[in-house]
Structures are given as C-alpha cells and as structure tokens.
Amino acid sequence: MNTYDRLTEIFQEIFDNDDVVATPELSAHDVDEWDSLSHIRVIVTVEEAFGIRLSVSEISNLTNVGEMVALIESKG
Amino acid sequence: MTSILSNTPHIADFRQGILDENGMHQGFLDPALASLTEDEVRELSDYITYCLDGGVDMPELVECYRTILDDTFQEQLNFMRTKAYRHSTFAEVADSVYFNKEYMTRYMHGLAFTAFIWPNHVEMRRFFLKSLPREKTGHYLEIGPGHGFYFMSAMKQGTFDRFTGVDISKTSVELTRKIVGHHFPKENRPVEIMESDFLQSTVSDGPFDAIVMGEVLEHVERPQDFLARIAGLAGPETHIFITTCVNAPAIDHIYLYRNPDEVTAMINSAGLEVRESYTGAYFGKSLEESRRLNLPINVAYVLEKAR
Ligand SMILES: C[S@@+](CC[C@H](N)C(=O)[O-])C[C@H]1O[C@@H](n2cnc3c(N)ncnc32)[C@H](O)[C@@H]1O
User: Could you report the predicted ipTM of this complex, rounded to two decimals?
Assistant: First the structure.
C-alpha cells in the first residue's frame, strides 16, 4: 500500500468520513472535521503507522498532504 | 459576527491579530465569537480595554492567547503519544509557571480569553454566573482565582458582604487585586487576597457562605485534600462551585482524571454531594466519543456538604 492509500485510511477513520481521500493538494481547510486536535490525532496515528517521530515545528509547518507525504518519506 | 466586529473594534483587532498568526483558527474562533450574548461581547471588549489601559498592548494580548493555544497543542501531542500528563508533581511546574511572573501573566490573560472563546469554558462561566446565589449574604471564598475574573464577577453579581481569595502564585494574587481594584475603586466590603497554598492557608475556620474553586484540582498533587478542606470549611447551606477537566493536558496539569466518574467519586468521598453539574464534551464530539477517544472533557459542579 502506498503512502497516500495508507493516509486515506487514517483520515477516513479519524474524521469519520469515507469521502476524504488523501491527495497532494488536500489541506485542513478542505475537511470540516480537521481541527487542531484531530490534526494531533492524525500526527500520532501517522507516527505509529510509519514508525517515525515528528517534531512540533515539522508538524506546524505542514500546509497540505503532499508536504506530509514528503516528510513521512524523508523519515522512512 | 460583522456587527460584533464593527461595534467592538478591540475585539476586531484581537481577532485579526490571532488570525494573522494562525489562520486555521478562524473556523473555531468566528463561530465562538458569534455565539456570545451581547453582555458577553461587552464583557470581552471591556476586558481587552482593561488590559490595554493597564499597559498590555494588543500584540501582547494576542500573544497571551497564542501562548495557551501553542502550549496546549504541544501538551495534547504529548498526551496522545504517552496517555499521561507530562508532569505529575507541583515542583516540576512551579518555577516555570506559577512563580514565573512573565509567563504566568501571559497564561492568566490567555486563560481569561478562553472563557469567551472555548465553548466549554464559555459554558462553565455561564453556569458559574447562573448558579451563584443572588440573595445570599456572608463570606465568599475563592481558591485559585488566577486572572481574577470569576472573583470580580462574584463581587459584581453576588450580594456577599466579605470576600477572600487564596492563590499560591504571587502573580495571580496581583492580577486579582488589580482587576478588583479597577472595577471597585471605592469598595467598602472587606476584600482580602492571600498568597498561600490553600492547604497551608490560614483562612478563617468558616463555615463560608460560598466556596468557589475553578480549574485548580488538576493543578495539584492531591486534589482529594483540597476537596476535604473545602468540606471542612463548608456548612450545610454553603454554595460550593468547582470546575476541573478530564484528559485535558496543559503545561501545568499534574493530576489526571481519566473520566468524569473519577471526579464525582472523589467529591463524594470528601463528604460532598453534587447538586447540579455541567459536563462539556470535546468540541464537535459527543460525550460518548470524547470518553472513548480520551478527548478533553470539562466538568463543573454545584456541590453541597453531605448531610
Ligand atoms: C488555571 S488557574 C484557574 C484560574 C481561574 N480560577 C479559572 O477558573 O479560570 C489555577 C490557579 O490556581 C492556583 N493554584 C495552584 N495551586 C494552588 C494551591 N495549592 N493553592 C492555591 N492556589 C493554587 C494557580 O496559581 C492559578 O492561579
């Protein structure tokens, strides 16, 4: 499974919304349920799923899913 | 919303300052401001004016609120990773928070703003004001007044004729004295704000007519001792109001309640009973979901001494 597919699964589970699909342009603005706490849940689930650890500044600087994928892959 | 922004320029500036730094917060901030009553809008605007008059400028005020947002974000991240609060002893947080004047001032102003912006804090303040007896006289005691906003509101709204506050932080004592002095420059009723650990404090033996303790239990190592002392200072007619939180990490939260039942069990074993309660699920989630996902829950209670 590639990174986008895995993220789609994570997003659908956390936002409780099967219509959300991870694409490079997707950002928090596009998903109503994506507030700061669900952002944290996404991050912690991503950390567990990919076996990585992200810093607060890395997390705060993310503006879209494409950047998140690049960050995950740079750590992998 | 537009009318709030055009009628209260301070709130408009404050909002803009927050959004300039954190655009993502708009989806949260705007509905929150729009849901305030006219009185609350005026109170928020007055609070900003009071801070500005006291020499804190707008960028600093924005920074106060951002401090709370950023610190809470970091602590929530840590909590989701570890399922525990970062610290568990008073000593670990005392110097960096309560005894750090610069940080504590920022934190307390920021916290006062959350009472107008974070839906559960707004509701708890409404519950506090609604439940505060209107015709009760006598002695009002508040533990941990912090920014002093509840204390000052009790002086405004209540008919008590004597007020005592106890706070362990010198900065909180000064902030409470300042806000009281500003709103009641010619006050005749005795008001005393003591700098002390509540458990060591030499407040009178009571019984007090009202005892209020907002957001303190999660800041202390042995909250059961605080509840027991409150029970000891209360009589059968005392109005007791307390708030706390569950699974709600913050930089200085050291006692973790994992569900609201743990709070009520502790209240009961201290010899107190719940007369009325408020339970606020995490924003946008049901109580059941908040419990299941260990999301923050706020709780507030009107208590009475068990008969
Ligand atoms: C989070 S603030 C709460 C402010 C306000 N009551 C509210 O509900 O927003 C907690 C306050 O409790 C005070 N505090 C913490 N431990 C205390 C203790 N052992 N005795 C008295 N006050 C204490 C802190 O200094 C701080 O001012």
Answer: 0.86
